[in-house]
C-alpha cells in the first residue's frame, strides 16, 4: 500500500504543477497550456487585429488568416513570413 500512496502523492504533485502552468484568460474560464493559444483566444474578446494586408483594408487576428487572404484574394504567396502589422509578400506567376 505504501508504494501506491507514493505514486498517488507524485501524481497529485504533477497535476498541481500542470495546473499552475496553465495560461488563463482574464475574460472567461478558458485556459491553455500554450501561451500562443491564449493570445489568439484573448483577441476574440478584445477585437485586436494586428495582422494587416498591405494591399487592402483587410485586418485579422491571426497570421494564418492573413496568409490565406493573400493567396485567395490577391493570388500571392509569401516569401518572407508575415510579421504583426508588417506583412511582406511577392507575386508568383
Describe, in plain words, how this protein is organized in 3D.
By secondary structure, the protein is an alpha+beta fold. The chain has helices at 2-21, 35-46, 63-72, and strands at residues 23-24, 31-32, 51-52, 59-60, 76-77, 90-91. A two-stranded antiparallel ribbon has the order 1-2. A two-stranded antiparallel ribbon has the order 3-4. Strands 5-6 form a two-stranded antiparallel sheet. The chain starts with a helix and ends with a strand.
What would the keywords be for this entry?
93 residues; alpha+beta; 2 domains; two-stranded antiparallel ribbon; elongated; disordered C terminus
Would you kindly provide a brief summary of this structure?
With 93 residues, this protein is α+β, with helices and mostly antiparallel strands. It is built from 3 helices and 6 strands, in the order αββαββαββ.
> How is the main sheet built?
2 strands, antiparallel
Average pLDDT taken over every residue:
78
The percent range for helix content is: 40-55%
Strand content: 5-15%
Oligomer: single chain
Structural class: alpha+beta
| Rg (C-alpha, Å) | 21 Å
Helix segment tally: 3
Strand order of the largest sheet: 1-2
Give, in order, the helices and strands.
Answer: HEEHEEHEE
- How many domain units? 2
The total count of strands amounts to 6
How far is it from the N-terminal to the C-terminal residue, by CA? 70 Å
Low-confidence stretches: 86-93
Globally, the shape reads elongated
Amino acid at each position: 500500500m505504501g508504494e501506491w500512496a507514493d505514486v498517488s502523492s507524485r501524481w497529485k504533485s504533477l497535476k498541481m504543477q500542470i495546473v499552475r502552468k496553465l495560461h488563463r484568460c482574464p475574460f472567461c474560464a478558458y485556459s491553455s497550456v500554450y501561451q500562443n493559444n491564449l493570445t489568439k483566444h484573448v483577441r476574440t474578446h478584445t477585437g485586436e487585429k494586428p495582422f494587416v494586408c498591405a494591399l487592402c483594408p483587410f485586418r485579422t487576428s491571426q497570421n494564418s488568416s492573413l496568409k490565406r487572404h493573400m493567396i485567395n484574394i490577391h493570388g500571392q504567396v509569401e516569401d518572407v513570413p508575415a510579421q504583426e502589422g508588417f506583412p511582406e509578400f511577392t507575386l508568383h506567376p
